[in-house]
Amino acid sequence: MVGMGRVENEAIAKPSSSSSPSSSAVTMSTSVTETVNGSHDFKITGYSLSKGIGIGKYISSDTFMVGGYSWAIYFYPDGKSTEDNATYVSLFIALASEGTDVRALFELTLIDQSGKGRHKVHSHFGRALESGPYTLKYRGSMWGYKRFFKRTALESSDYLKDDCLQVHCCVGVVKSRTEGPKTYSIPISPSDIGLHFGQLLESGKDTDVNFDVNGEIFAAHKLVLAARSPVFRAQLFGPMKDQNTEHIKVEDMEAPVFKVKALYYRPPLSCPYLDLTAYLVSIINAICPLKSVCLKFVAMPENLRAVMQTDGFDYLKESCPHVLTELLEYVARVNEHSGIASKLGNEVVLDGGDVNGRRVKQRL
């Protein structure tokens, strides 16, 4: 196999002397011209039987592919030209597929079968070419030698052994392309952070807060809770945080409900949003016995403000308006019992509009 040749030309766009360097962009491209190389070995047996085939008639190798084109070796036992009167054998390499102006380098070698290594070589490779690579205009175009070897000399040489000749052919098809800046892409695996958070929760390692729910203790991590839920963020780090943030007693909630809430570390992959409070409400219809408990938790004034600031609340308004209606009823009940209904008044309702239907900023 012959080594690949390569020529590179770089083009750099430079700013003119009148342009400002700070406002000029410098770009770069590279023109690459190289050869795509391939080789083929052609063994000709029964040489003496091929003599007399006729001038201009050839024995062909099988076709082989190099550089996207098909090629074949043609051997003329009686020569290619009538003017030589079968004095010479001819050897050519031919373009055997469709092509126009195919530029290539060639090498034809008749193998010395004595083992002395005195091969007869005609090559474009490894030397300067005054007119550049050879151009084949169309299918059937050939490069080679009409007078490759005098027949009488060939028949008494070491190139012919056991009535057999061996030909080695190399083809280098010239290819050109322009390269711009290279871009690289790095495949990123799907995130498994949810799995890791779930394993962290289940391990109980380095927990820093305990929740007491009807005598059942749930250990968790403050920072993870706060990062994933505005309710916990307010309860653990906000201005309304509990006085004792290491042991928190949870009222008016059953342990199974809180366990669902604690598992927000690892929400289901099908959940279209990751906010805890919206996630809890979205599963209310699937867990009917927990419905009233969840609504009551969200409707509490200290939790509702944080809930309304989440993207999950917007999703809830669009996808579950009936749940929003029930939540509104719970808010009304809580306000009635807590005495803060006068602060809400008729100014704002949960769908983001006032009593006249105008859009206003949600606030409590």
UniProtKB/TrEMBL annotation:
TM helices/strands, residue ranges: none
Domain BTB, residue spans: 207-259
Region (Disordered): 1-26
Family annotation (SUPFAM superfamilies): POZ domain (SSF54695), TRAF domain-like (SSF49599)
Record's compositionally biased regions (Low complexity): 16-26
UniProt similarity note: Belongs to the Tdpoz family.
Protein name: BTB/POZ and MATH domain-containing protein 2
Organism: Datura stramonium
